[in-house]
Amino acid sequence: MSGLELAFNTELSGRPGVYHREKVSNRYINIVDTLAEDGCDVVTTLDVGMQDLTEKVLGDQLRHLNARAGMCILMEVATGDVKAISSLSRLNDGTYAEIEPRAVTNMMEPGSVFKPMSFMVAMDDGKITMNSTFDTGTGVRDIHGRKMRDADWRKGGNGVMTVPDIIKRSSNVGVSGLIDRAYGRDPDKFVEGLQRIGIMEDLHIPIPGYRVPRIRYKRDNPSRWYGTTLPWMSIGYETQVPPISTLTFYNGVANGGKLVQPRFVTEIRRNDEVVKEFPVVVLREKMCKDQTLRDIQTCLEGVVGKNSGTGKLAYSKYFRVAGKTGTAQIWSKHGFAANYLVSFAGYFPADRPKYSMIVCIEKTAPAYGGMHCCPVFKKIAETVMARDLNADYRAARDSTALRHELPFMAAGNLNALNNVLGAIGLGKQGLPVTSSGIVWGSNTGTDRQVRLTQETTVQGMPSLIGYGLRDAVYRLERMGLRVKATGVGHVVRQSIAPGTRVQRGMRVGLLLSSKDDKHISEEEDQTFRRMYGLPAEKKDSTQKTAEPSVRESEKSEKSGTNDNPTKKTPQPSTNGKGENEKKKERKTEAAPTTKSSTANNKTSHTGSATSSTDKKKNAAAPNKKTPKGSKS
Description:
20 helices, Beta-lactamase, 632 residues, four-stranded mixed beta sheet, alpha+beta, Trypsin Inhibitor V, Chain A, disordered C terminus, six-stranded antiparallel beta sheet
């Protein structure tokens, strides 16, 4: 037993009862002395879906790398609620399991994820700015006889670098050089700054085994403080910090500088009654100055570029990510590096932070935080954001636009609509609906203003356009009519026109749609009309399209011209034909024509059908050419 189960074992277990047995009338009966109490329900902040996702993605990466162990924590920025936490260790058989909550109990040197903390202290003290520079040379610097190297020192170094570039490239020489230059004579002032921003805070994590970060002062033991202590401390060594504390710092950066305590449990319940609540606890209202916070946020976003930065593998095309990679050697008792701790800590979306996360992996060399932890961070972040269907963080409108947006309001019972508007706090103008009965009407206002208007009383069939189905059916059945509805949404068509005299028992058809009546499909409209024997809607556009072709045909016959440059052939006489053939010809001539001409001056064809008699004539005289506009 460990973790939350161990922490809340008393509440979960309940209390056993006590009874004794007595012999009464030659038989034993049980007499209860103390009633047993059922255990309580502990309501956690964990999200089952996010927890499963975190365990799977982390486990897959550990198996792929054959890593020793891995930890991942996903936290909600605003509240500090831990949505998922996983600590997996490799067993002797090669499988991975959660043996202990290493994410909150492991004291480790965090490595380069500590660098933003160092720069936050220096910026807040006015020691450096975003424009401060340091000459990193070839990427190797001698500090009191010990070599400080950048990760890319073999490539020749980066020379003079600014503060954002130092964080972006994670330059050990740059960070240690600036901090040593600023606090070399008073290292305790630097440690006091770390205390001020909250990284050394006791988070009071309820999980057994949690340990408070340890960062030592020079004044506590001057004999153990060396010239290399401060430079190495500034890049994440000479410190002992559990992953949960590192994440709490990054969560504070994402939360506008407000440092909140990580929360695992929201309340304890017994028989659906809240016994104890655990509210959000704010540890620091402000970690640092506002300008310092903005500068650190800018630096962290620069780390996760599309094609640059040590955290580029955490880049997402769907939303912005900010964070910092870390790689630290884990020293054994023999003094050599047995393993590496690689990590990535950050938050997303960077422009509107909702979640923060840290991923840590222990493995043998080669090991890099950007290469091994960023893919885990990215996959979890993108999956979590894909689940959040209620927000589009790239196209979200501002609060002013959202405040003026009104919901759709179907026509119908204004009393019911009035009650709903009052419940959600929307103001209204127009009719004061106070009657205890039903008042029929609709919202005639704009998209930013509600105006309730009572409909005009009509004899016979009322207009139900815009009604919701419930109000429409209620009103029609009150009139004794039978209702059949098709579709989903509000009423856009009704089979009986408004004002028509109706009788009890008549059947009324309603067509419903989520669109307005002007945008329903032609197929829906025609199907509804056929169902109830309604006349088809007249379309003037068809007639207008046909007229030009008829006039063109008449003009061609009068002028004797034709697009086909052949000699005009007189139209065959219809004398002696039957009455049926004459009718067919008249119908054919009235139809609009469609020109079709070939390059070899062949016969022009019309778009109308050809009578059987004409087919025979054409077959008998294949070389006969027909003028444009006539029957062929």
